[in-house]
Amino acid sequence: MFKYIVKRLLGVFLTFFGITVLVYLISEMAPGSPLEMLMADPMATEETMEALREQMGLNDPAIVQYFHWLAALLQRNLGISYRNGLPVLQQVLEKLGPTLILTLSSTLLSVLIAVPLGIMSAYKPYSAWDYISSGIAFVGASTPTFFTGLIAIYIFAVKLQVLPMGGMYDPGIHTASSALQHLILPCLVLTIFNIGSILRQTRGSMMEVFNEDYIRTARAKGIIEPRVVIVHGLRNSLIPVVTVLSTMIPFMFGGAVVAEQVFSWPGLGSLMVQSINSRDYPMIMGITVVIAIAVLIGNVLTDIVYGILDPKIRESR
């Protein structure tokens, strides 16, 4: 098991390098520059702009700028924001907490809802319950997050007035109960979006498992049905479900960007949009590092779970 984990970790570094190179070069190729805000200042002279460009290192080729950034990263320094002059690491860590609260809570809720629905749909396929569950999955997966968010705000915040419209806290009230009330709508919107993929995969893999010989053998031995479904069925159908969860990690952050904008949730998504608009390259790369690390850690944990669920996978690698 140790060798298996080490092999997976070695591949992480090369992947991380590729992600950061790609994002940096794409950011550099995007129209505009951090100096555009300064250009709008009528008092800014060409000499001032050139001095600032040299100070920021923007005169260097993009690949040289990248390796300067990488060298600073190895020293645990993500640089200084072009937009406000504050340390990037400090701002990213401040916004990371709210994003993790939103994404992890929505993912947990999605699993708690979708997996039981998928099991029940597979246990009684083509029943009324199966059609209802499939309809929920289809609507959830096909509806854009921003549209679901606007509908949720209209119903629960504008018409019923039972939940706050946005933000993370009520003005001047930074309590856990206030944060929980503000979390409900964005968490619900992301959960609706995530349920579809998990439900469909759970249903499909459980239906395959229910047709296996060992399930029929377990029933023939007189094992109670809940044990057959949970112990023999669910355990052997978890690998495809875990795969779906691992592939959803980037989309969790992507969906969070939209949800954070719609609900004014003060997380990494909102910070990323501000940074892109102002061409704040250090901040963009800082957020990229955090998201890349989260995705790569998720993939490594997925491989470890594979090895735990199926020893054959662990031995073959």
Structure keywords:
0% strand; mainly alpha; MetI-like fold; globular; 317 residues
What's the helix and strand layout?
Elements: H1 2-29, H2 36-39, H3 46-56, H4 62-74, H5 88-123, H6 128-142, H7 145-159, H8 176-210, H9 213-220, H10 225-234, H11 238-263, H12 268-277, H13 281-309, H14 311-316
Offer a quick outline of the entry.
By secondary structure, this protein is mainly α. 78% of the residues lie in helices and 0% in strands. Helix 12 packs antiparallel against helix 13.
Structural class: mainly alpha
Poorly predicted segments: none
Secondary-structure element series: HHHHHHHHHHHHHH
Q: Alpha-carbon distance between the termini?
A: 10 Å
Instruction: Note the total helix count.
Output: 14
- CATH homologous superfamily placement of the domain at 88-278: MetI-like
The CATH class name of the domain at 88-278 reads Mainly Alpha
Largest sheet: none
CATH architecture of the domain at 88-278, by name, is Orthogonal Bundle
CATH topology of the domain at 88-278: MetI-like fold
CA radius of gyration is 24 Å
> How many E strands?
0
